[in-house]
Specification:
The chain is α/β, with parallel strands linked by helices. The protein is built from 14 helices and 24 strands. The protein has helices at about 20-30, 50-60, 85-90, 100-105, 125-135, 170-180, 195-205, 235-250, 265-275, 310-320, 335-345, 375-385, 395-400, 405-410, and strands at about 1-10, 15, 40, 65, 70-75, 85, 110, 135-140, 145-150, 155-160, 185-190, 210, 215-220, 230, 255, 275-280, 285-290, 300, 325-330, 350, 355-360, 370, 390-395, 415-420. The strands form 6 sheets. The protein has a 4-stranded mixed beta sheet with strand order 22-23-1-24, with helices on one face. Strand 22, helix 12 (about 375-385) and strand 23 (about 390-395) form a beta-alpha-beta unit. The relative contact order is 0.16. Bound molecules: ligand EPZ. Ligand EPZ binds near residues 23 and 123.
């Protein structure tokens, strides 16, 4: 098991290239099983979650390979075992997004119910309800979802809104299933995340007929079949946001290459409010801070609101602000595993339900801390860059799920992070 040993404080300076999006890649990998043949996906990051998804597709009958140049090849000619195994699904909840495409392609799917999650309650009722609206018969058997539509799916108006707003992977599942349903499907209260728009653009390149992309109403005219695709996924806006906070928390300056500011307006708005400069540049932006960190209030919401996947990183930043900030988590109300760990580093955070009061402190202090989930672990690394002394982050495997060898990208711009196996 790896740990990170981080020496702080440091000041970051230089350029970092942003990788392709994990959360766009996963549903797009699932989309390739809608058709028989060889698809090529470009800019898919080298992450443990991507490898696990590759294993999931392998088990269905696909062949997933990587070229030397990094392209991901998925040969979905044969799907002879439409089953998402518990051993794989328990490692990664996003596995659930094979359910819709398998149903559309094979008329039947068995996928293990995802288990618990460190970031809170994550039901899939909206996924199942949406697929049932398209005519699937769904039942639960020994921890597996059994979904059947032997005569195919039929287009219908489907409302996908839930108690916390839209659902990203729920929209992905129903959207993929609808591409080959008979007739028209209207998905109302669809997720508008750039990752869903990327999936829809990829599906249209495969021959689907989707309109309303980027809006909360997606209209899908079902087609008889789709074709394999060559597609490049969008840059990772959450990775970009994480590196923006890295520049800000260290009072440094970073040029982020391959970064789409257009996907990050709520994030950039908050950064500027906090006293961080974000200037567009060729193929990216320059992010820096040379004044005090100002306090600011943040409420997470579905896109285009402030992303929950940057809540922890901004909490680390605001823990060093002048004054108090209020952070409200409206998407995953229990997503606060990082609070106790940041307090171990001398932050002053008080949690009350889905709200955290962040009382700014003069400095953070290095300490041994425990990663619990992907974004919480990123926040601990960022705090370690600014803290006095040594921070040891345990369970680094959490961060490897979503950031490709982060220490090899941060050390060249001034960080002092060593990865050690214990
Ligand atoms: C996606 O998860 C992302 N994962 C998450 O990123 C991200 O935090 C989340 O969207 C929200 O932006 C991937 O794309 C692989 P949701 P997803 O369904 O689709 C409730 C990361 O760090 N809900 O949009 O699983 C749910 O409990 C990960 O990269 C229902 O009630 O999230 C939550 O409160 C973590 N019923 C809210 O909706 C349902 O059927 C939003 O969840 C589905 C969801």
């Amino acid at each position: 098991m790896d740990i990170f040993r981080i020496e702080g404080p440091v000041r970051l300076s230089g350029s970092v290239k942003i990788n392709g999006s994990k959360n766009a890649s996963l549903p797009i990998m699932a989309a390739t099983i809608l058709t028989a043949g060889k698809s090529v996906l470009k800019a898919v990051p080298h992450l443990s979650d991507i490898s696990v998804f590759g294993q999931l597709l392998d088990r269905l009958g696909c062949q997933v390979t990587r070229s030397h140049s990094g392209d991901l090849y998925i040969d979905s000619t044969t799907i002879d075992n439409p089953r998402g195994e518990y051993e794989i699904v328990r490692k990664m909840r996003a596995s659930i997004c094979i359910l819709g495409p398998l149903l559309a392609r094979c008329g039947r799917a068995e996928v293990s119910m995802p288990g618990g999650c460190a970031i809170g309650d994550r039901p899939i009722d909206l996924h199942l309800r949406g697929l049932q609206e398209l005519g699937a018969k769904i039942r639960l058997k020994s921890g597996y979802i059994i979904a059947e539509a032997p005569h195919g799916l039929t287009g219908k108006d489907v409302f996908m809104g839930g108690p916390f707003g839209s659902t990203v992977l729920g929209t992905a599942n129903v959207l993929m299933a609808a591409t080959m349903a008979k007739g028209r499907t209207v998905i109302e209260s669809a997720a508008c995340e750039p990752e869903i728009a990327d999936l829809a653009n990829c599906l249209n390149k495969m021959g689907a007929k989707i309109t309303g992309i980027g809006s909360a109403r997606l209209i899908v005219e079902g087609v008889r079949q789709l074709r394999p695709v060559e597609y490049q996924v969008i840059p990772d806006r959450i990775e970009a946001g994480t590196f923006m906070v890295a520049a800000a928390i260290t009072a440094g300056e970073l040029k982020l290459l391959n970064c789409r500011l257009d996907d990050m307006m709520a994030v950039v708005d908050r950064l500027r409010n906090i006293g961080v400069t974000v200037d567009a540049a060729n193929d990216g932006c320059v992010v820096g801070r040379n004044g005090p960190i100002k306090s600011a209030d943040i409420t997470t919401e579905p896109y285009p609101g402030f992303p929950t996947d940057l809540q922890a990183q901004f909490m680390a930043l605001l823990s060093l602000a002048q004054g108090d900030s209020v952070i409200i988590e409206k998407v995953f109300p229990d997503r606060f595993m990082h609070v106790a760990e940041l307090n171990r580093m001398a932050a002053d955070l008080r949690k009350e339900g889905a709200t955290v009061i962040v009382a700014g402190v003069k400095k953070l202090v290095g300490a041994p801390v425990m990663a619990s989930d992907l974004r919480a672990s990123a926040a601990l690394v960022l705090a370690g860059l600014a803290a006095d002394g040594t921070t040891v982050v345990n369970r680094v495997y959490h961060i490897d799920r979503g950031y490709e060898r982060i220490e090899e990208r941060l050390n060249p711009v001034g960080a002092k992070i060593s990865r050690e196996s214990i």
